[in-house]
């Protein structure tokens, strides 16, 4: 969908095509990613994979293929392990950026050098190991590796008002993990961990039993006086 433009031509591979999009377009982008998840997981040609890094590499390749062949999405690219816009020493698991176009959203310009949406990817459950916290999707007591924790602290996505997280659900189903995250956040609140409240809980937006995916959202206050951040969570049972 284009806004404030009567005619706009998108030429893949050629920077300079200006695309003006409404602020809510990011919701459509999240929906596009969600729609691609089941086909990626169920692709018979996809090599078996369990680890987070391997799964994210596969998903990134799939999203690039799907976007390239989808009308209205072919001006996007997906990249892995990109430096954070505000903290270049930290890497984002997966980012979305323009490809061959300049995109304007709510008065802000995005090019192939500026991330549209930063996305963290996490396994549920967290792999066991030294200095690994089972609550790592949310928080880690050993480091700043907690997924939501990074966004709250501004270690990831400080330049963004919206971000994404993808959960590779393994071992249990989506309702189990939603309840488990609620319990973990309740525990952080009960032990008075600074900056955490019941407002940090995830709200289930949609759960599709047939394809075994779910969409959830959460909003979090951030440190250093930054505006709150909205996180879209896409979970897929592997």
The secondary structure category is alpha/beta
Count of DSSP-assigned helices: 4
Q: Give the helices and strands as they follow along the chain.
A: EHHEEEEEHEHEEE
- CA radius of gyration is 18 Å
Question: Span between N and C termini?
Answer: 32 Å
Helix fraction?
A: 10-25%
Roughly what fraction of the amino acids lie in strands? 25-35%
Q: Care to count the β-strands?
A: 10
- Taking pLDDT < 50 over at least 5 consecutive residues as the criterion, the unreliable ranges are 1-14
Counting structural domains, the number is: 1
Strand order of the largest sheet: 2-3-6-7-10-9-8
Mean pLDDT rating: 92
Main beta sheet: 7 strands, mixed
Could you characterize the architecture of this molecule?
- The protein has one domain.
- Helix 1 packs across helix 2.
- The protein is α/β, with parallel strands linked by helices.
- A seven-stranded mixed beta sheet has the order 2-3-6-7-10-9-8. A three-stranded mixed beta sheet has the order 1-4-5, with no helix packed on it.
- Strand 8 and strand 9 form a beta hairpin.
- The chain has four helices and ten strands; from the N terminus they run βααβββββαβαβββ.
Feature tags:
238 residues; alpha/beta; 3-stranded mixed sheet; 10 strands; 24% helix; globular; disordered N terminus
Give a nutshell description of this structure.
With 238 residues, the protein is an alpha/beta fold.
Write the layout of secondary structure elements.
Layout: E1 18-21, H1 25-41, H2 52-68, E2 76-83, E3 91-98, E4 102-105, E5 108-110, E6 117-124, H3 147-153, E7 162-169, H4 174-190, E8 203-208, E9 213-220, E10 229-237
Parallel strand pairs: 1-4, 6-7, 7-10
Antiparallel strand pairs: 2-3, 3-6, 4-5, 8-9, 9-10
